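Saturday, quiet lab. Running sequence design on the structure tokens for the scaffold JK sent over.
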């Protein structure tokens, strides 16, 4: 009996390997670009970005307009605008709490 060679119906694995290589290369390039960008932001531009951040974080805002009065159905005033001074301090950034409290107490009373 003679053996007959037949062509296999299985697809070749070569295109899959090529696709995998292209995707791997693309991910490697993306990862390298990400690392380069992070180094640029965190090391090279650190001082500039830190100053910009501080400027955005610390600012005074004057609120000029009121929110308006609130009335009930009989036109009795329930709430109104009141001018007040306000102070804000972050307790975690205060080093000497007693001295800070003393200075604030003198300034507020």
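Result came back. Writing it out in full:
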């Amino acid at each position: 009996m003679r053996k007959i060679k037949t062509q296999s119906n299985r697809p070749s694995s070569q295109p899959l390997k090529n696709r995998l290589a292209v995707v791997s290369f693309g991910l490697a390039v993306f990862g390298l670009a990400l690392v380069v960008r992070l180094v640029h932001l965190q090391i090279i531009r650190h001082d500039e970005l830190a100053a910009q951040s501080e400027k955005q974080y610390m600012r005074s805002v004057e609120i000029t307009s009121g929110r308006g009065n609130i009335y009930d159905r009989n036109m009795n005033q329930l709430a109104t605008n009141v001018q007040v001074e306000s102070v804000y301090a972050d307790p975690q950034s205060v080093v000497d709490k007693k001295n800070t409290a003393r200075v604030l107490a003198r300034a507020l009373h």
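Notes for JK: Residues 48 and 54 are 10 Å apart (CA to CA). DSSP finds three helices and two strands in the chain. Ask whether to fix the surface positions before the next round.
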